[in-house]
Automatic annotation (TrEMBL):
Classification via InterPro entries: Polyketide_cyclase/dehydratase (IPR019587), START-like_dom_sf (IPR023393)
Record Gene3D superfamilies: 3.30.530.20
SUPFAM superfamilies: Bet v1-like (SSF55961)
Protein's name in the database: SRPBCC family protein
Naturally occurring in which organism (per UniProt): Amycolatopsis minnesotensis
Cited Pfam families: Polyketide_cyc2
Signal peptide residue numbers: none
Matches recorded under CDD domains: SRPBCC (cd07812)
Length: 150
């Protein structure tokens, strides 16, 4: 297992940040190389399933997730069900005042490929973290201008 924990401050109310975060169909507007769709359920309740394809020009992988915790407007917890990505993730929004919030992304992931994955993770982690930081910076801008149905 490996843990990933990153956060970004957002100049938007927590409720707006939550709505932007859980607008799964628009996640591709801020998440690097990723498109998300709701596979089952409404995407806003425990038991809903999501599929996130990450890649370029159709080459990549799909991360299938099930929502296992739904506590709007504070936390969404998912279980990764795929063969490549396994473990749990949480998206947490902290209220910091009328026009401020913090988005916290945390993951507890089982590394794929056994020993090779464990040995290779120290080499892959910096690029993974850099991509995630870039995406969180884009998310902050997305949330700050977010409007439902836009």
């Amino acid at each position: 297992m490996t843990d990933v924990l990153l956060s970004v401050e957002i100049a938007a109310p927590a409720g707006t940040t939550w709505l932007a975060l859980t607008d799964w169909a628009r996640q591709g507007e801020w998440m690097l190389g990723t498109e998300v769709e709701v596979l089952a359920g409404n995407g806003r309740s425990v038991g809903s399933r999501l599929a996130a394809f990450t890649g370029v020009a159709g080459v990549g992988f799909t991360d299938t997730m099930e929502i296992i915790g739904w506590e709007p407007p504070v936390r969404c917890t998912v279980r990764h069900l795929g063969t490549l990505v396994r473990g749990t993730g949480a998206f947490h929004v902290q209220d910091k005042g009328p026009q401020r919030s913090v988005f916290i992304w945390s993951e507890q992931l089982e590394l794929p490929f056994g020993l090779v994955g464990r040995l290779g993770w120290p080499l892959a982690k910096p690029a993974f973290t850099l991509g995630l930081k870039y995406s969180l910076h884009r998310f902050a801008k997305f949330a700050e201008r977010y409007s439902v149905g836009a």
